[in-house]
Amino acid sequence: MEITTSEANGRFPVTIFHLKGDLMDEEPLQSQAQKAVAEGSRHILLDLEEVPYISSAGLRGIQAVFQLLQDSSGADSKAMRQGILAGTYRSPNLKLLNPSKNGMKALGVAGYDMFLEIHHDRQTAVDSF
């Protein structure tokens, strides 16, 4: 797994993680996100276009990024959980771009598509923050 980053500006600055290769581990995604948040990133877009496969450990990595951003934003975790259960919550801090067909399947089975916005156009994704 290779991760490169870039920055984009919508209403907020967005850090884009460009992932390449199978997402089969929590690392290095989790440590890259920790570094980005420590440097001030509050909005992260995971570009999954070059990720053919996401394992359960990869899903845990995405969850770790989600939780890290939630914790750093001071969001009300009880309201978030209630919103996820009701199907009304969408993460304002983490979004996904261009997952593969297999990636979409993993995200759907895990229920991540219930609370993470999935975009297929980079500018639309950036503007959604």
Question: What about the largest sheet?
Answer: 5 strands, mixed
Name the shape in a single word.
globular
Spatial ordering of strands, largest sheet: 1-2-3-4-5
SS class: alpha/beta
Low-confidence stretches: none
How many domain modules?
1
Q: Strand share of the residues?
A: 15-25%
State the order of secondary-structure elements, H for helix, E for strand. Answer: EEHEHHEHEH
| Average residue-wise pLDDT | 94
Task: Describe the overall structure.
Helix content is 42%, strand content 23%. By secondary structure, it is an alpha/beta fold. The protein has one domain: Transcription Regulator spoIIAA (2-Layer Sandwich). A hairpin with a 3-residue loop joins β1 and β2. α1 packs parallel to α2. It is globular. The two termini are 26 Å apart. The model has no long low-confidence stretch (mean pLDDT 94).
What secondary-structure arrangement, pairings included, does this model have?
Layout lengths: L1 E8 L3 E8 L8 H10 L5 E7 L5 H18 L3 H10 L7 E4 L3 H10 L6 E3 L2 H6 L2
Parallel strand pairs: 2-3, 3-4, 4-5
Antiparallel strand pairs: 1-2
Helix pairs in contact: 1-2
Main traits of this protein?
alpha/beta; Transcription Regulator spoIIAA; 129 residues; 5-stranded mixed beta sheet
Outline of the structure:
The protein is α/β, with parallel strands linked by helices and 129 residues long.
